[in-house]
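Good morning,

Attaching, inline, the backbone tokens for the sequence recovery test we're adding to the shared suite. The designed sequence is right after.
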């Protein structure tokens, strides 16, 4: 795979592997002591702390949900489960996973270095490889992703499989296209990390590597026969694109296969990263995107801004100079590809949020390291006033790598301190619960921690939220009381506690105000039915009305009602959670009486006149967790959250001109009728079951009802 063998080999009679077979892989290790010392030191300096001082993040605390409960498969990230089966990692093993990930990344860096040396016909030699390998291995954006241990191994797999796939593609270009090589390329890319929808972003690594490879091939073509004209480059690009399309199709059907095997419904979480909104016109959308991108750029540290400007301008200038000198305009296209490749996802999705960009910017380290190495290559024979430019560039590269390891360690250290703070609270709470809870009663956390005050971060704010802040605790009262991440972390560390459910929020509020706050005596209170732990004075319980509203009792004949007016009256019940979505159109026969009934439920939006406009709402025991109506008939509404008893939910709505479907998921099952009009699912918080699913076709005057059996 790495080097064409001259002849076939087989194992000797003694069972030893002959040296010629090993030599196919030995090319990866043909480096000087200088290279090995630099790369090993950079790796230790960057990852030594986090390997010996692990932390548990909020996604790590949901390990079983992502892997064993099929959430990653539902999102199309089937690779997580595939690699977990290969490595048999179905439990939380922080040091083992991180060490394995760093090892894979280290050897993957060797494959990248060999790829660049091979396609440049040896011109990308020892010093450029050293600069590239050290800069890539220590790129700080990898640290942002690496603290999520749930996918650290996949990062290492991407580092190895993607450059190996590009080596196969290079053989397709330079030697011969064969079905065997095409299949090998497809399989390597398909199984790299976690598939196309991975947060590890294998497609961006693949795209960046392709342009890096192309630039070196064009620059160092040795004769006119090898000259890469625009036409030849386009043909190569079409071959690459065709193979990637095959990968994309196989990834789609592989995800569907895993979903079928594990019996999970598709989840549109990954698709929610698409942020382009063309409702006001494409020109306005592009201008708004450009404005936000510029604002984000100027918020970067000064050193980063200067570096980005210098690297971008210098790279383009160098590519133009070489294109003119070698009469190879394709050089400019390849250089532009290298510069733009890290930003492809942001441009494609229109998503400039810190979460989205942080997850996909790790491939930017590939382009950054490559450009640094290319600077050295192109200036090593240049002297100004008898000063060797390569010495200056080399010194700057050393400073860059040192600075990158510093930034990476700040990220790891901040997250470690955040975790130690969480452990401190957890240890205190566990001891105090044990003293107050001899019969292991269910518990509930009330009050929200101030993240910036309590994270104990060097920068004043944590890179990741505390486990007692994450998981929707600041978004809704149900999220605050569920404290999902903290409960999961306690279970992860061996503390089995039951979450209190079916709470009387008004009674809970009265007890909350009378209690002292953590860590004062009395912050743990045994109410008889459950244990209350008060973490701070700030709580969404304060937003509750002073007196509960009078509401009708549960009606067991709910499923027999086919009149929309009676139905809206009956679901006004404090024991119910009501999830509502619209498909196609719900406005044509929607009238003021219907609007009044929905307003009585606490909803605010009026569907009258909203022809084919999407709408979705979630009411949890009278509290509005979510309500929104689309701006246009092409809009799509999506929301995920947790009900007050800890049950996850998801709602989706789109009108006829869009996807013309709706979705209501409670727990891990879809319940919506998905029929034209207003779709309603009713969840009984006492029995913790969905008790009805109905759709009223308010496109028609009679608003007929249709139901599904669940």
């Amino acid at each position: 795979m790495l080097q064409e063998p001259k002849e076939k080999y087989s194992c000797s009679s003694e069972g030893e592997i002959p040296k010629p077979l090993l030599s196919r892989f030995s090319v990866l290790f043909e480096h000087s002591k200088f290279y090995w010392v630099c790369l090993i030191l950079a790796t230790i300096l960057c990852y030594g702390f986090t390997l010996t001082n692990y932390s548990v993040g909020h996604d790590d605390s949901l390990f079983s949900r992502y892997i064993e409960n099929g959430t990653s498969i539902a999102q199309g990230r089937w690779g997580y489960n595939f690699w977990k089966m290969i490595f048999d990692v179905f439990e939380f093993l922080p040091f083992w996973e991180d060490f394995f990930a760093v090892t894979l990344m280290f050897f993957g860096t060797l494959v990248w270095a060999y790829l660049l040396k091979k396609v440049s016909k040896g011109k990308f030699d020892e010093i450029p490889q050293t600069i590239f390998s050290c800069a890539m291995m220590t790129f700080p954006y990898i640290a942002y992703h690496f603290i999520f241990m749930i996918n650290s191994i996949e990062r290492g797999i991407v580092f190895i499989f993607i450059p190996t796939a590009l080596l196969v593609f290079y053989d397709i270009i330079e030697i011969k296209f064969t079905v065997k090589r095409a299949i090998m390329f497809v399989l390597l890319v398909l199984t790299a990390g976690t598939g196309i929808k991975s947060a590890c972003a294998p497609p961006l690594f693949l795209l960046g590597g392709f342009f890096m490879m192309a630039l070196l091939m064009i620059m160092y073509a040795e004769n006119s026969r090898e000259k890469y004209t625009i036409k030849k480059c386009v043909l190569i690009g079409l071959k690459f694109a065709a193979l990637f399309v095959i990968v994309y199709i196989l990834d789609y059907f592989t995800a569907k296969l895993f979903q079928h095997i594990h019996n999970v419904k598709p989840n549109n979480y990954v698709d929610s990263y698409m942020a382009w909104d063309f409702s006001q016109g494409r020109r306005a959308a592009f201008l708004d995107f450009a404005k936000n991108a510029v604002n984000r750029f100027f918020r970067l540290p000064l050193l980063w801004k200067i570096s980005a400007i210098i690297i971008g301008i210098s790279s383009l200038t160098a590519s133009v100079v070489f294109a003119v000198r070698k009469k190879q305009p394709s050089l400019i296209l390849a250089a532009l590809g290298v510069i733009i490749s890290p930003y492809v996802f942001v441009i494609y999705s229109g998503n400039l949020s810190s979460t989205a960009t942080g997850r996909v910017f790790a491939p930017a380290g590939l382009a950054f390291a490559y450009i640094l190495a290319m600077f050295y290559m192109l200036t090593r024979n240049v002297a100004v006033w008898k000063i060797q430019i390569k010495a200056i560039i080399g010194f700057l590269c050393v400073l860059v790598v040192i600075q990158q390891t510093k930034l990476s360690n700040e990220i790891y250290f901040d997250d470690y301190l955040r975790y130690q703070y969480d452990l401190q609270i957890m240890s205190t709470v566990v001891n105090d619960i044990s003293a107050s809870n001899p019969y292991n009663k269910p518990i509930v956390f009330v009050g929200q921690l101030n993240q910036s005050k309590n994270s104990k971060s060097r920068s004043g704010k944590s890179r990741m939220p505390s486990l007692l802040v994450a998981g929707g605790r600041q978004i809704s009262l149900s999220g605050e009381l569920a404290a999902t991440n903290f409960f999961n972390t306690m279970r992860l560390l061996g503390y089995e506690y039951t979450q209190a459910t079916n709470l009387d929020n008004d009674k809970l509020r009265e007890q909350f105000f009378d209690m002292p706050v953590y860590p004062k005596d009395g912050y743990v209170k045994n109410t008889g039915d459950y244990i209350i732990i008060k973490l701070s004075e700030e709580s969404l319980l304060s937003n509750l009305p002073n007196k509960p509203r009078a509401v009708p009792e549960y009606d067991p004949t709910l499923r027999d009602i086919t009149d929309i007016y009676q139905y809206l009256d009956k679901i006004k019940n404090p024991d119910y959670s009501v999830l509502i979505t619209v498909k196609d159109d719900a406005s044509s026969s929607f009238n003021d009486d219907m609007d009044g009934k929905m307003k009585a439920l606490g909803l605010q939006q009026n569907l009258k006149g909203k022809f084919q406009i999407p709408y979705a709402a979630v009411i949890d025991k009278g509290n509005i967790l979510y309500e929104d109506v689309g701006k246009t008939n092409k809009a799509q509404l999506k929301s995920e959250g947790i009900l007050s008893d800890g049950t996850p939910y998801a709602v989706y709505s789109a009108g006829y001109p869009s996807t013309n479907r709706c979705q209501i998921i409670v727990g891990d099952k879809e319940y919506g009728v998905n029929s034209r009009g207003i779709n309603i699912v009713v969840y009984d918080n006492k029995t913790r079951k969905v008790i009805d699913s109905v759709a009223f076709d308010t496109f028609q005057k009679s608003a007929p009802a249709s139901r599904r059996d669940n």
